[in-house]
Specification:
The chain is built from six helices and seven strands, in the order αααααβββββαββ. With 198 residues, the protein is α+β, with helices and mostly antiparallel strands. The protein has a four-stranded antiparallel sheet, covered by helices on one side. A three-stranded antiparallel sheet has the order 1-4-5.
Length: 198
Amino acid sequence: MCYNEGAMVRCACLHKFTNVRYLCSVALIMWFLAACTAAPTADEADVGGGFSPEAVTESFFEDLQRALRDPNLHQEEVRSFWAERLAGYFAPVERDAQRIALRRALASFASGLRQLADDETAIFELRGLQSVEKVADDGERALVRLPSAMIAMTLVRTTDRGSFVFYEQSIELSQVIGRSDGTVPLVNIDGRWYLTEG
């Protein structure tokens, strides 16, 4: 999978504040990298994958959302935990490269969050994950699609008068993962399904 640079640039340029543009770009790059990965718990890192393409894909994106919402993501050991967990969703031969890419992406994402002012909060949400549909499966390789999946970002500012949203954006997941058909590829290895780059 590769990211759709045009969609990312449009997203990044929608807001006039430099720190928000930076945060949007980093967030979308993170989503792209995540779309190329999948993961188990730290104890399951040697096994990884799952028993169905749909379950692996849904679990990966749920874990990605948890990682992006982790309040301690600024800590290197927390980022390493999430990178390891997410890399576990990938085929074993792809994990080392994915782990490195995810660590870098999570570090950039955490750095982007630090660009927000003290009274600003970023909220990321993946919507529509429950409708994962399998579009192809020959027993060795499969393609799934999340037709209604959206990445939503909301920036909230809190003042003495309360909190208010000052920026919102949603983008279809298919625009970020960069595959023209909006699918996510998986491979079956020894009876378990894993995310794969191709």
